[in-house]
Design goal:
Blueprint (H helix, E strand, L loop, with lengths): L1 E5 L6 H10 L3 E6 L13 E4 L5 H8 L4 E4 L11 H20 L3 E5 L17 H13 L4 E7 L1 E3 L9 E5 L8 E3 H12 L7 E8 L7 H6 L3
Helix pairs in contact: 1-5, 2-3, 3-4
Length: 221
C-alpha cells in the first residue's frame, strides 16, 4: 500500500513510518516545516506543511491508499494547540482525504479521550479536543479506525515479551504501552477489516498472552 503518515517526525509518527517500511509499504511523510526527521526515514518522500494548507495536504495525500494520523498537541503553555491540532487539524486532514479519494484513515488518539475530569485537560482541554477529532472521523463516512493508547513509553527492548490488551471504547483508564507497539497496532489495523468503524484502546504488559487485533475485536462485547 501507499501510506501517508502525518506527524511523521513525532515520537510515535516516525515509528509508524519505520514499521510501515518494514512491512514493505510505500510511504509519504507529512510534517511541519520546522520538524527534523530521524535518519531512518530521512530519505523518504516528505511534505513539509501546516495542517490548514489545503492544497499542500491534497498534494501529499494524492494517490495514497490510506492516511495514518499521528499528529497531536503536546502539553505546553500554548493552550490553543489541542484545538488547532487535535480537532481542527484532524478535521482538515479528513476533508483532504475526501477531496482526493483516500477512504482509509487510522487515527492515534489517547486513552480517556472525551473525559472532562482528567489532569491532562489542564493543558488546553487536550482530551476534550481529541474526542472532537475522533467524532469528526466517526461522522466522515470514511473507513476509519481510532487507536487509543495508554501512557506512552520509549521502551524498545524485549517487546516480544509484551502482550497487548485490546479493548473497545472507554474500557481502560490507565496503564502504559511502548510507542513502538502503538505503531505496530496502527499498521495491523490496516490489514484487519473488523477494525473499521471502531475505537480500539491499547495498553500492554509482560503478563498478557499475545493476541491478534482481529481475534481481540471478535471477542469485544
Amino acid at each position: 500500500m501507499k501510506l501517508a503518515i502525518s506527524g511523521a517526525s513525532g515520537k510515535t509518527g516516525y515509528r509508524i513510518a519505520e514499521e510501515a517500511l518494514a512491512e514493505g509499504h510505500e510511504i509519504k511523510l507529512i510534517t511541519r516545516k520546522s520538524s527534523e526527521l530521524p535518519t531512518t526515514i530521512r530519505d523518504q518522500e516528505r511534505f513539509a506543511l501546516e495542517l490548514d494548507n489545503e492544497k499542500g495536504l491534497d498534494t501529499a495525500l494524492d494517490s495514497c491508499d490510506a492516511l495514518l494520523i499521528a499528529t497531536g498537541a503536546r502539553p505546553s503553555i500554548d493552550l490553543t494547540g489541542p484545538a488547532r491540532i487535535d480537532a481542527l487539524g484532524v478535521k482538515s486532514q479528513i476533508a483532504s482525504c475526501k477531496r482526493v479519494g483516500v477512504k482509509r484513515i487510522v487515527l492515534v488518539s489517547s486513552l480517556c479521550a472525551g473525559r472532562w475530569q482528567h489532569p491532562l485537560n489542564l493543558f488546553g482541554l487536550i482530551l476534550i479536543w481529541k474526542r472532537v477529532g475522533e467524532r469528526s472521523l466517526e461522522e466522515s463516512g470514511l473507513d476509519w479506525t481510532v487507536i487509543r493508547p495508554g501512557g506512552l513509553s520509549e521502551k524498545e527492548d524485549n517487546l516480544s515479551n509484551e502482550g497487548i490488551l485490546f479493548t473497545g471504547q472507554d474500557k481502560q483508564e490507565d496503564a502504559t504501552i511502548p510507542r513502538r507497539l502503538v505503531a505496530r497496532c496502527c499498521i495491523e489495523a490496516l490489514r484487519t477489516p473488523n477494525s473499521i468503524g471502531r475505537i480500539i484502546e491499547v495498553t500492554s504488559n509482560s503478563e498478557l498472552d499475545p493476541v491478534t487485533m482481529k481475534d481481540a475485536i471478535a471477542g469485544f462485547s
